[in-house]
Amino acid sequence: MGTPLSDLLLPLYHIARVNTIYKNAGGQRKTKWISLGLSEKGNKRKAESELARLRAEFEPPKEVGDLSSDMLFADYLLEWLEIAKGRLAHATYGAYQGLLKSTIVPYFRKKKLTLRELEARHLQMFYSEMLRRVTPNTVIHYHAVIHSALKYAVKTDMLIQNVADKVDRPRKNSFQPVFLSAEEMQKMFEALRGTKLELPVLVAAFYGLRRGEVVGLKWDAIDFEQGTISVKRTVTSTIIDGKYQEFEQQSAKTKSSLRTLPLIGSFREYFMQVKEAQELNKQVCGNCYNYEYDGFVFVDELGERMRVEYLTNAFPKFLESHGLRRMRFHDLRHSCASLLLANGVPLKHIQEWLGHSDFTTTANIYAHLDYKSKITSAQAMETGLALPEGGDFSSRWSSISAGENSRFSPLKTENRAGFAL
């Protein structure tokens, strides 16, 4: 426990902010400035009143590593996240931070449960309440964060068991992606002609690239002499501390995502035009050109790299405004796979084209679209298993003579009152 603020907070303040001085658990003096939101003239009394309130309410913040099973579970979650930050990918850290600060921490702070007091029933109640507000998939994300945090508590001997293991996760809600036909693709390409979205969409639709792989494409990944395009880096986006950030990774999503694909004639021409345009933009803009993203394929006239979120947000809006079927940018990847299947490409080859790490991923998503393989299977069964000729599956009533059948005709039946029905 730190020394109470009432003993250490010095009346060193400007009108606009207060300088709080306290000792942490290790006895070290710490300083924190707290803004009062007051102008510097005519507010001395208000500042003194605010100082008195802060003295009464202030609690020294806990520092990373200062963990115990007696601390509030809500506080533990935030401290754990800072400890885990070094091993988490930027996007994962941003996602975890968003889930914790927006929902999980506020909920459990109201419950005032310590880490030691947390039980499976508390988590189950939390999930049940959240399911009335959000989708099962979101609750599964909540569970993943909480489970990871409690796993660390067990690992560091603050807890003897992970109570999240005892909780029933909700069943994942199914999501059906949009699959465009070749005709719909052509109609979309026509609408996109000459726009900023045209080439990114063409690349995603033909090669099945993820949005981060599209934005992360650099000229060193395109070999015009060998006629290849390599997927070897990605750009991810996230929000950390309320600020939108993008991070370039020198590797794709997984090892299998690193792949080299053929650069067909049309794309060779597209990319050559873009490369020439970039060189001209550098000459025209001079010092105004942003060389920070030099080497990336998708930059604007001033050298600014295309944002990942631009593809996420602008693409579906464009489709809707042009009367086309609304879909996510990632659905272009799904449409690519469905068209490959429709043209007889085996699932194993599609796995390699898309860069899936596991064949089961490809099969689980796209196997239901592989109708041609079902026809082949049916023909194989018909060849290998002879079925009886003809067959007698007609109604048994057909064997009864018309005269006999008339006795049972519903139109001749009388009810109990003697009336013909």
Which radius of gyration do the C-alpha atoms yield? 33 Å
What is the typical, i.e. mean, pLDDT? 80
Structural category is mainly alpha
Compute the number of helices: 16
Distance between the termini: 90 Å
In short:
Helix 13 packs across helix 14 (359-366). The protein has helices spanning 5-8, 44-57, 73-84, 90-111, 120-130, 136-155, 182-192, 198-207, 211-215, 265-285, 308-321, 331-342, 347-354, 359-366, 371-384, 402-406, and strands spanning 17-23, 29-35, 222-223, 228-231, 234-240, 243-249, 259-262.
Secondary-structure map:
Elements: H1 5-8, E1 17-23, E2 29-35, H2 44-57, H3 73-84, H4 90-111, H5 120-130, H6 136-155, H7 182-192, H8 198-207, H9 211-215, E3 222-223, E4 228-231, E5 234-240, E6 243-249, E7 259-262, H10 265-285, H11 308-321, H12 331-342, H13 347-354, H14 359-366, H15 371-384, H16 402-406
Antiparallel strand pairs: 1-2, 3-4, 4-7, 5-6
Helix pairs in contact: 3-4, 8-12, 13-14
Give a structural overview.
The protein is mainly alpha-helical. It has 16 helices and 7 strands. The chain has helices at 5-8, 44-57, 73-84, 90-111, 120-130, 136-155, 182-192, 198-207, 211-215, 265-285, 308-321, 331-342, 347-354, 359-366, 371-384, 402-406; strands at 17-23, 29-35, 222-223, 228-231, 234-240, 243-249, 259-262. The strands form 3 sheets. A 3-stranded antiparallel sheet has the order 3-4-7, with no helix packed on it. Strands 1-2 form a two-stranded antiparallel ribbon. Strands 5-6 form a two-stranded antiparallel sheet. A hairpin with a 4-residue loop joins strand 3 and strand 4 (228-231). The longest helix is centred in the first third of the chain and has 22 residues, at 90-111. The protein is extended.
